[in-house]
Amino acid sequence: MAAQQKKAEQFYQLHHTGKLFILPNIWDVLGVKLLESLDYKAIATASASIAYSNGFDDGENIPFENVLSTLKNIVNSTSLPVTADIESCYANDEIQLEKNIKQIIATGIVGINIEDSNHSNHTLNSIEIQCNRIKLIKRVAKEMNVSLFINARTDVLLYNNLFSTSEVKLSELMKRGLAYKEAGANCFFPIALRNVEDIEALVNGLKMPINILALPGIPDFTILDKLGVARVSLGPGLLKYAIKAMKSLATELKEYNGLSLITENEITSNYLKSLIHH
């Protein structure tokens, strides 16, 4: 646990350097090894990428046991801090949440993304319910002697029917951000936020690290850095990029083209071996 706590402290520090850091979310050990070789300082998983690459839809459809074993493999393959996207922690009540979060922390991870959607009835948790969940996670982590980094994701912008105008949405984001911070969250993740003025308002209003998802329409990384955003994550962006390359080559091959793309690829078997033994 001492080693896990040390990594938790390292991960916390990454959000307080005054510089934006980018986390390309991975889904397997090879992805870990690649980022490690490129001198990334932390590893993040994407729930969607883990689900899709195992043949499941995102949204807690992949069995929880599979998620746990994937996380264990990833943590055991690296000395870097690992943060895991655990959706809503596969728990609709606090008893289940406590049980599951203990198992999650036991994999060795030092950070989580936890969202305020309820997957059983497709609604947004109330602020009070979500704050109680964050407090519970904080308490369990403390009992296990790990300063678990909680990236509190809010799905406000995914529920257009609940909030009439962009002003109302921003006000709800601000309200939830402040409440989650008070409950013990270390970072606020307003998923699908793209608007530069709203991002700036949250950075200044919440005075806590903000995580932005790399989506079409977000400001450039240099602008996010200037605004004081702490972290950008890719979600399933890296997986999509990999699949794009595979799809493009597979399409060429059907027409008897693309041989040189294979034979001249700088990613050789030896390169892959070097990653594994890195």
List the helices and strands and how they pair.
Elements: H1 2-14, E1 21-23, H2 29-37, E2 43-44, H3 47-53, H4 64-76, E3 82-85, H5 94-106, E4 111-115, E5 117-118, E6 123-124, H6 127-143, E7 149-154, H7 166-183, E8 187-190, H8 196-206, E9 211-213, H9 221-227, E10 231-233, H10 237-254, H11 259-263, H12 269-276
Parallel strand pairs: 1-10, 2-3, 3-4, 4-7, 7-8, 9-10
Antiparallel strand pairs: 5-6
Helix pairs in contact: 5-6, 6-7, 7-8
Q: Widest sheet: strand order?
A: 2-3-4-7-8
**Unreliably modeled segments:** none
Strand content: 5-15%
Helix content: 40-55%
Number of domains: 1
Q: Count the strands?
A: 10
CATH class: Alpha Beta
Report how far the terminal alpha carbons are from each other: 24 Å
Helix/strand order, N-terminal first: HEHEHHEHEEEHEHEHEHEHHH
The CATH architecture term is: Alpha-Beta Barrel
Rg calc: 19 Å
CATH H-level superfamily: Phosphoenolpyruvate-binding domains
The name of the CATH topology is TIM Barrel
Shape call? globular
Number of H- or I-type helical stretches:
12
Largest sheet: 5 strands, parallel
Mean pLDDT, to the nearest integer, reads 97
Class per helix and strand makeup: alpha/beta
Write structural notes for this entry.
The chain is α/β, with parallel strands linked by helices and 278 residues long. It has a single domain (2-248), classed as Alpha-Beta Barrel (TIM Barrel). It contains 12 helices and 10 strands. The strands form 3 sheets. It has a 5-stranded parallel sheet. A 3-stranded parallel sheet has the order 1-10-9, with no helix packed on it. Helix 5 (94-106) packs across helix 6. The model has no long low-confidence stretch (mean pLDDT 97).
